[in-house]
Amino acid sequence: MYPEDVRYTENHEWIGEEDGLYIVGISEYAQEQLGDVTYVELPEIGRHVRQKEPVAQVESVKAAEDIYAPVTGVIVEVNEALEGEPELINLDPYGKGWCFKMDDIDTAQYRRLMNREAYEKYLKSL
Amino acid sequence: MDLIYEKCNHRQAFSFRSNREFDVPFPRELRRQKAAELPEVSELDVVRHFTHLSRRNMGIDTNFYPLGSCTMKYNPKIADVVSSFVGFTQLHPQLLYSETYLDCVQGALELVYHLEQLLSEISGMRAVSLQPMAGAHGELTGVLMMSAYHKHHKNTHKKIILIPDSAHGTNPASAAIAGFQVQEIPSNPQGTLDLDRFREAMNDEVAGIMLTCPNTHGLFEKDIQEIADLAHQHDALLYYDGANLNAIIGQCRPGDLGFDVMHFNLHKTFATPHGMGGPGSGPVGVNERLLDFLPGPRVIKKDNDVFSLDYPKNTIGKSAPFLGHFLVAVRAYVYILMQGNEGLKEVSQKAVLNANYVLSRLRAAFPPAYDRLCMHECVLMAMPYHDWEVRALDFAKALLDRGFHAPTVYFPLTVKEALMIEPTETETKETLDQFCDTMLELAELAKQNPDELRNAPITTPVQRLDEVKAAKELNVVRPLNTPKT
Fold first, then answer.
1. Is B468–A64 a contact, with Cβ atoms under 8 angstroms apart?
2. CB-CB neighbors (< 8 A) of B467 in chain A
3. What is the C-alpha to C-alpha distance for residues B334 and B324, in angstroms, rounded to an integer?
4. What span, in angstroms and rounded, lies between the C-alpha atoms of B224 and B5?
5. Is A63's CB within 8 Å of B472's CB?
6. How far is CA B341 from CA B249, B253, B348, B424, in A?
7. Can you give the pLDDT at residue B278?
8. Does B468 reach chain A within 8 Å, measured CB to CB?
C-alpha cells in the first residue's frame, strides 16, 4: 500500500524522484482520513518554498487541510488534472493523484525524511 | 417539495406599483431596464410555503440538539418578548448621530452601556464593545485591534499569529484577513496545547496567540498561566476565543487568566438565537493595553448621567454600522439580569456536569479522544465500528431517524471519526438518558445490522445526501417558471 521508492513526512506527504525532479503527493493514509476530495488548490509555479511551509490545500466533505512542502525548494510543475478531477487523489494517490513537482531541493532534508518502514511504524503510533 | 421559484405563478402578494413620483428623479442610468426576476405567488401561497418549510425544520424548540462546539441551548422566550417592545423595535438607528435627538435614545444607550459593563465584569476585561455582528466578526475586530496595537508601538517585525491545531477554522481565517501569517501549534497527547512546541515557536516575530479555553477537545488549557507569561515576555498579545465561555462563566475570567483581548458569542453563552435564526452578535472585550484601540463610537456616561457617544483615542474605527445588532444585545441583557450572579455560575456547572454524564454513559461504546474529565462537551470516536464499515457520519444520520439532531462530526480535525457532543445546561437528565440509550442501541445495531445505519436517515424529508456532488457541482441558481400567458 505504501510505495518503497518514495519518502514520507509526519504530515503525510510523500516525495519521490522522477526524471531529475521531485514529485509530491499525499499518502494513502491521508486520502483515507480526508474522505472524498472535492477541491484542490495548487501552488504557483516558480514559487520558492521552505520546508513545512503550507503550499497547497485539499478540501474534502469532512475537512480542509494544508499540504506542506516536504523539503525546501522551488515549485516547477503542478498537476492540473486535479482541478477537474480532484477525486484522482482518492483513486490513485501515488500516480495520477500527484500534486506538484519540485526542483533545486534541499537533498539533505530529503534524505532525513521517513522511508516506508519508518512511516508505517509512525502510522501505528497514531 | 417545490421551491418557491418553482411555485411562481406571477400572482402578486404585494405590489410596488405607485403613481407617486419621487421628489428627486431617480438617475436614469441606475434604473432597471427589465423587471427583476422575483418568485411571485399570492400572499396565502407565501404563508403556506414557509409554514410547510418550518414544519420540516429541526431546531432546539423541537428536538435535543447536541451539536458540539455550537452550544445549542434553549433561548428563553421572555428575551424575545422584551426585545420586541416597541420602544426597542421602533428606534431609528440614525437618531444616534443627531445631537438634537440623542436624548430620545437615552434608554437604549443606557442598556448598551450597562450590558458592556456586565460583560466586562463577567470576563474580567477592562471594557467591551457590542459592535461586531457575529463571532467571527468579533475575532476579526479583535485581531485588527492587535494589529493596530503593534503598529502603534512600531512592532513592524511582528507578523505571525500562533494558533493550536484544535482551533475553530475561523481563527486562522481572521488572522489571515487581518494580514498576519498563521503558524499552527500541535496538541499534546493529553489534548491540550503542546507547551514545548509552543516555546519553540515563540519569538519576537509573534504578534499574538489565539486560544479557545476550554479548547475544542472540551479540555481546559491547564498551562494557560505559562502560555500567557511567555507571550507577554515577547510583547505578543493573547486572544481569547469566547466560543466556549459557557464552560467557565462564573468560575474564572479570561481577563484574570492573562488574556488581552477576546470576543463573546452572545448566541452561545447568553442564549440569543443562532445563525439562520440570528442575527448574531460577537462583542469584543479588551484589557488596559488595548483600551484605546476599541471600535468607535462608544457609549459613554457623562457627569450629569447623560449618555453620549465618543471615539477611543486610537480607535480602529467602526466595525459595524451604529452599535451592532442592538435587539440581540437586548436579549443577552435580559438573560444576564434574569440569571444573576448565582444563575450564571450554575450555567457552567450544569453544562459541565451534563457533558460528563453523557461521557460516562457512552465511554465504553464510544472511546473518548482523551479519557479524562471534560468541560462542557465531550469528543468521542466511532472507531470501534470501523470493522463493520460504520462511520461517525452514519451514527449522525441514524440519530435523525430517532428524533435527535446529530452531534458535530469530524471536528476537531485532530480526532479520528470524531463525534463531538455538547448537551448544554438546559437539558434534563431524562432527555440525556434517552439520547444515551439511543446511542448505545445504535452501537449494538452497527454490529448486528450495519446497513440500517449506512442507509439512514429514512424518515426525514430528504434521505442521505450526496455530499461530494453537492460540493463539486454546487448549483444555487434556479430559473423562474416562465409566465403562464
1. no
2. 36, 61
3. 17
4. 53
5. no
6. 10, 13, 12, 19
7. 67
8. yes
Cell numbers linked to B292: 484605546
Write out chain B residues lying below 8 Å of A65, CB-based: 413
**Is the interface score ipTM higher than 0.85?**
no
Nearest CA-CA distance, residue B41 and chain A, Å: 36
Given an 8 Å threshold on Cβ–Cβ distance, is A59 in contact with B169?
no
- Could you give all domains of chain B from N- to C-terminal order, each with its CATH number? 4-54 (no CATH), 81-338 (3.40.640.10), 347-469 (3.90.1150.10)
Compare all CA atoms of chain A with the CA of B186 and give the residue at the minimum distance. A11
Find the residue in A nearest to B412 (Cα).
A63
Q: Chain B contacts of A36, Cβ < 8 Å?
A: 467-468
Interchain contact, A38 vs B416, CB within 8 Å: no
- Mean pLDDT on A86-91: 96
What is the residue whose three cell numbers read 404585494?
B14
> Which of B185-205 are b and which e, b meaning 16 or more Cβ less than 10 Å from the residue's Cβ?
bebeeebbbbbebbeebbeee
Interface residues on A facing B, Cβ-Cβ cutoff 8 A? 33, 36, 38-39, 59, 61-65, 86-87
pLDDT of chain B, 485 residues: tens digit per residue? 788 888 888 888 877 666 666 677 778 888 888 877 788 899 999 999 999 998 998 889 999 999 999 999 999 999 999 999 999 999 999 998 888 889 999 999 999 999 999 999 999 999 999 999 999 999 999 999 999 999 999 999 999 999 999 999 899 999 999 999 999 999 999 999 999 999 999 999 999 999 999 999 999 999 999 999 999 999 999 999 999 999 999 999 999 999 999 999 999 999 998 865 568 899 999 999 999 999 999 999 999 999 999 999 999 999 999 999 999 999 999 999 999 999 999 999 999 999 999 999 999 999 999 999 999 999 999 999 999 999 999 999 999 999 999 999 999 888 999 999 999 999 999 999 999 999 999 999 999 999 999 999 999 999 999 988 888 888 877 766 655 44
Nearest CB among A59, A63, A87 relative to B413 is that of A63
Residue-level pLDDT at B372? 92
Q: Confirm whether pTM is higher than 0.95.
A: no
Give me B30's grid cell: 441606475
Cβ–Cβ below 8 Å for B471 and A39: yes
DSSP letter for each residue of A76-125? EEE-THHHH-TTHHHH-TTTTT--EEEES--HHHHHHSB-HHHHHHHHHH
CA distance B20 to B23: 9
CB B134 within 8 A of CB B278: yes
